């Protein structure tokens, strides 16, 4: 439901390899990532100064500043060229990444399962490393390590461009059968890893092999990532794999209905225009011709047109172009994220206490009734809240004010107070109420310490935790309240049995995405938490 | 209540996931990298579960007046990050030629020299080196710039005085 949660779980990182048997793969992983978005290249293009970026990333950059993001050499969008080799390398690597990770990380798994890693298996592992570039993903032949496999599936779900290929993969690459009988190729096998090589190379290789380094075939040194180079290894020249890869890369994928997979020819690059030569009306007409929204002030029209050009031209560079419909959706998303000021230091324009009050009038009344039991407990802090109450009182209808005063000392918008308290403490900051919109809790009115009927209990916990720093002594400079400390003040209880607050309930009309706290990551990324525990300042003890 | 929240609910997750997806994804990647391979003397983490504002900590570089001290910073990311730089300020009171009394920092890579390839880690590393090598030609804090060259002992005294303020408050 919440896509960001999935995204979080499956976000691959070069550091994934750090704990594997071949940590150096992190370098390869990092080399296939765009410097700007830090993700794997999408439709990579190369600049004149020789730096490669995602098409969309560098186009957006050049829109802001006509310089290469890496070396600041002057650059123009029109001079960008597709970098097909990198695209192929990324595709090939992405296709095997999950499997490869599983293959090189399973030391303890193998021991647990009672099967020591025998020579055969080691050879297989290394085979796969060798063949990263040449084989399609071996689909489901490996069943070890369920979590990894699941991760791969999730990825497929998220990025459909990789799905088709893994489906078209032949179930069993022929390399398996090749290994069973020694091929008559005039090569000899390494006694340790069984890899076949020329006799003269064996003695050299054995040292490396014992040191755990992967065998690097001669004349093909570090090019694990280049699928074009023919492999010198007989086992990896598996004939069916090449056509499959090619087929799936260059044909519109079979999972798309024909109507949504237009041939690349339909997408022609759009030219830039000089906005100063366009009047408002002409620009509007232009946008309408392009089939995109044409409302708003001229600045917005320009920005929208620029972004459309970026999206469109980046799509032209992609080997798997998306449909115009999908691009329009992207533009919509961009619009939602960017209509607000570029630097969100300013207040969130959408926030309005009145609207909030209006929308939640029922909820307020509900909760007020439920909260009556907790009056005594709350009265102590009532004095603190006066200031905030005054703020509310303008908006709350008369009857409700009375109810609020008698039963609900905390303001209807506890985040507002909490979020503001930190910057205010720091003195140097202007109070920035826009932070309120960024907080994930969506039910600020559920202040009652009684169990609620409707809201799942995590709302309750969220409220209590968020408000705690406010009721307690705030440490100097708000330090502790600023930190996502891991114990009591943690807004996202680790052991929370309920799913995290979902953005569906987020009534703020905010375009800032809901972002899950690290504690909510699915089990796979629990490593975060252990890391967190080791960070000294992440605990509450170190404040100030 | 139920009905109204369901109505708005329909679009909410989509909106949340799509809007600024570039920013969130990029920041998540950065966070992962900082967590999994943390550089020495530097850490950063989103505060209040908000991925667009982080708290960073930075150890004062050795052989400078700032040695053995830890400084906290606030990083606010714009919605078009990394095309625009984050807004970085010291939250620990700071006495430094290129930092004003409100914690604002004068550093070219956070302004006109920003590049989209920079990230939290490079920014914090740059700031760390700025501590030891201030640019006294265009100071934000004239007194600090003056003392840095003329009277290092007094500089350190004032800096520590200000630093301790934070601890005592």
Describe what is shown at a glance.
The complex is a heterodimer of chains A (544) and B (169). Chain A has 544 residues and is mainly alpha-helical. In chain A, 45% of the residues lie in helices and 2% in strands.
Number of helices of chain B: 6
Number of domains of chain B: 1
- What value does the average pLDDT of chain B take? 83
Structural class of chain A: mainly alpha
Structure description:
The complex is a heterodimer of chains A (544) and B (169). Chain A has 544 residues and is mostly helical. The N terminus and C terminus of chain A are likely disordered. In chain A, strands 2-1-3 form a three-stranded antiparallel sheet. Chain A has a two-stranded antiparallel ribbon with strand order 4-5. By secondary structure, chain B is α+β, with helices and mostly antiparallel strands. Helix content of chain B is 41%, strand content 16%. Chain B contains six helices and four strands. In chain B, a hairpin with a 2-residue loop joins β1 and β2. In chain B, α5 packs across α6. Chain B is globular, with a radius of gyration of 19 Å. The N terminus of chain B is likely disordered. Chain A: E3 RING-finger protein, member of the UBC2/RAD6 epistasis group. Associates to the E2 ubiquitin conjugating enzyme UBC2/RAD6 to form the UBC2-RAD18 ubiquitin ligase complex involved in postreplicative repair (PRR) of damaged DNA. Chain A: GO terms for molecular function: single-stranded DNA binding; ubiquitin protein ligase activity; zinc ion binding.
């Amino acid at each position: 439901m919440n896509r960001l949660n999935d995204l979080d779980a499956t976000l691959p990182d070069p550091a994934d390899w750090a704990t594997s048997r071949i940590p150096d793969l992190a370098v390869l992983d990092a080399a296939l990532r765009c410097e700007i978005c830090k993700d794997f290249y999408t439709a990579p293009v190369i600049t004149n100064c020789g730096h490669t970026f995602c098409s969309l990333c560098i186009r957006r950059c050049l829109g802001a500043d006509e310089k290469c993001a890496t070396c600041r050499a002057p650059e123009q969008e029109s001079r960008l060229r597709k970098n097909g080799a990198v695209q192929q390398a990324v595709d090939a690597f992405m296709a095997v990444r999950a499997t490869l990770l599983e293959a090189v990380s399973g030391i303890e798994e193998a021991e647990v399962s009672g099967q020591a890693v025998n020579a055969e298996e080691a050879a297989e592992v290394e085979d796969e490393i060798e063949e990263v570039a040449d084989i399609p993903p071996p689909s489901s032949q490996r069943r070890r390590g369920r979590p990894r496999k699941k991760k791969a599936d999730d990825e497929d779900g998220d990025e459909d461009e990789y799905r088709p290929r893994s489906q078209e993969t032949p179930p069993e690459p022929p390399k398996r059968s090749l290994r069973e009988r020694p091929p008559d190729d005039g090569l000899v096998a390494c006694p340790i890893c069984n890899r076949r090589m020329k006799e003269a190379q064996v003695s050299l290789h054995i040292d490396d092999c014992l040191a755990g380094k992967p065998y690097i075939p001669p004349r093909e040194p570090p090019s694990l990532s280049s699928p074009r180079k023919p492999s010198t290894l007989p086992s990896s020249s598996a004939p069916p794999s090449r056509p499959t890869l090619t087929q799936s890369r260059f044909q519109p994928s079979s999972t798309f209905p024909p109507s949504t997979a237009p041939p690349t020819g339909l997408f022609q690059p759009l030219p830039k225009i000089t906005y100063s030569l366009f009047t408002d009306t002409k620009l509007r007409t232009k946008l309408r011709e392009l089939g995109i929204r044409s409302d708003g002030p001229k600045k917005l029209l320009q920005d929208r047109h620029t972004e459309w050009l970026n999206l469109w031209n980046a799509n032209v560079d992609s080997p798997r172009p998306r449909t115009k419909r999908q691009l329009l959706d992207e533009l919509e998303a961009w619009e939602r994220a960017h209509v607000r000021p570029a630097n969100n230091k300013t207040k969130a324009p959408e926030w309005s206490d009145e609207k909030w009050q209006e929308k939640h009038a029922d909820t307020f009344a509900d909760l007020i009734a439920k909260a009556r039991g907790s009056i005594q407990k709350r009265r102590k802090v009532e004095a603190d809240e006066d200031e905030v109450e005054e703020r509310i009182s303008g908006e709350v209808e008369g009857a409700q004010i009375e109810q609020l005063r008698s039963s609900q000392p905390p303001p209807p918008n506890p985040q507002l107070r909490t979020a503001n308290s930190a910057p205010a403490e720091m003195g140097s900051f202007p109070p920035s109420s826009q932070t309120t919109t960024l907080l994930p809790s969506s039910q600020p009115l559920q202040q009652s310490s009684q169990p609620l009927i409707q809201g799942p209990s995590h709302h309750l916990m969220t409220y209590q935790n968020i408000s705690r720093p406010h009721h307690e002594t705030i440490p100097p400079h708000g330090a502790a309240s600023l930190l996502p400390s891991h114990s009591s003040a943690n807004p996202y209880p680790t052991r929370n049995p309920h799913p995290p607050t979902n953005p569906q309930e987020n009534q703020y009309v905010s375009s800032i995405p809901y972002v899950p706290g690290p504690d909510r990551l699915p089990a796979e990324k629990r490593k975060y938490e252990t890391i967190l525990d080791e960070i000294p300042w992440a605990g509450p003890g170190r404040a100030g | 209540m139920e009905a109204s929240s369901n109505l708005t609910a329909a679009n909410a997750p989509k909106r949340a996931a799509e809007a600024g997806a570039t920013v969130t994804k990029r920041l998540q990647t950065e966070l992962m990298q900082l967590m999994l391979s943390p550089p020495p003397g530097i850490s950063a983490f989103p505060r209040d579960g908000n991925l667009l504002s982080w708290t960073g900590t930075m150890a004062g570089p050795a052989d400078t007046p700032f040695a053995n001290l830890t400084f906290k910073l606030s990083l606010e990311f714009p919605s078009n990050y990394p095309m625009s730089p984050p807004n970085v300020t010291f939250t620990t009171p700071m006495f430094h030629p290129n930092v004003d009394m409100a914690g604002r920092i004068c550093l070219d890579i956070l302004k006109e020299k920003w590049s989209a390839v920079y990230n939290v880690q490079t920014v914090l590393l740059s700031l760390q080196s700025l501590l030891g090598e201030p640019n006294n030609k265009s100071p934000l804090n004239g007194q600090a710039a003056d003392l840095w060259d003329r009277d290092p002992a007094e500089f350190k005294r004032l800096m520590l005085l200000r630093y301790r303020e934070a601890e005592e408050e």
